[in-house]
């Protein structure tokens, strides 16, 4: 069973968030949260909050135990880019691109749901 949490429009470029995400892939949620609380990058705060949200979703919605949860999937995509201009010398301007990102996290307890097929008897 998996639970999901999404954080969109993080004001940090996706390439910088990916450095933090690579630290915690396939780890237990408790280990990842403790590692992220000591990570000095700004993106670690957003990643930690999203993981905690996914763990809370799993506990509340699917009645999973938070001690058994691990990060099954986590990835970062590029969000919208804000285009701004900065004045330069002699009446010119330079374009600044303020990039953002979206973060997706799935946590799982390692157990799979059994799907029952109803009416799957073959007629012969």
- The pLDDT mean sits at 92
Main sheet properties: 3 strands, antiparallel
Name given to the CATH architecture:
Alpha-Beta Complex
Radius of gyration: 20 Å
Uncertain residue segments: none
Query: How much helical structure, as a percent, in the residues?
Result: 25-40%
> How far apart are the first and last residues' alpha carbons, in Å?
36 Å
CATH class: Alpha Beta
Shape: elongated
* Count of beta strands: 5
Number of helical runs? 3
Number of domains: 1
Walk across the major sheet and give the strand order: 1-5-2
- What is CATH's topology name? Ribosomal Protein L22, Chain A
Keywords summarizing the entry:
124 residues; alpha+beta; Ribosomal Protein L22, Chain A; two-stranded antiparallel ribbon
Task: Give a verbal description of the structure.
- This protein has 124 residues and is α+β, with helices and mostly antiparallel strands.
- The protein has one domain (2-85, 94-108): Ribosomal protein L22/L17 (Ribosomal Protein L22, Chain A, Alpha-Beta Complex).
- 31% of the residues lie in helices and 31% in strands.
- It contains three helices and five strands.
- It has helices spanning 14-24, 29-37, 43-61, and strands at 2-10, 70-78, 82-87, 93-98, 101-108.
- The strands form two sheets. A three-stranded antiparallel β-sheet has the order 1-5-2, with helices on one face. A two-stranded antiparallel ribbon has the order 3-4.
- Strand 3 (82-87) and strand 4 form a beta hairpin.
- Helix 2 (29-37) runs antiparallel to helix 3 (43-61).
- The longest helix is centred in the middle third of the chain and has 19 residues, at 43-61.
- The protein is elongated, with a radius of gyration of 20 Å.
- The mean pLDDT is 92.
């Amino acid at each position: 069973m998996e639970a999901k949490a999404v954080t969109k429009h993080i004001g940090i470029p996706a390439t910088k968030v990916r450095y933090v995400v690579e630290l915690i892939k396939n780890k237990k949620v408790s280990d990842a949260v403790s590692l992220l609380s000591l990570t000095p990058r700004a993106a670690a705060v957003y990643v930690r909050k999203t993981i905690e949200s996914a763990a809370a979703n799993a506990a509340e919605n699917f009645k999973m135990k938070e001690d058994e949860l691990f990060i099954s999937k986590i990835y970062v995509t590029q969000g919208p880019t804000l285009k701004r201009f900065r004045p330069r010398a002699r009446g010119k301007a330079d374009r600044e691109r303020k990039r953002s990102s979206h973060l997706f996290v799935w946590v799982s307890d390692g157990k799979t749901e059994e799907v029952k097929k109803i009416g799957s008897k073959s007629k012969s």
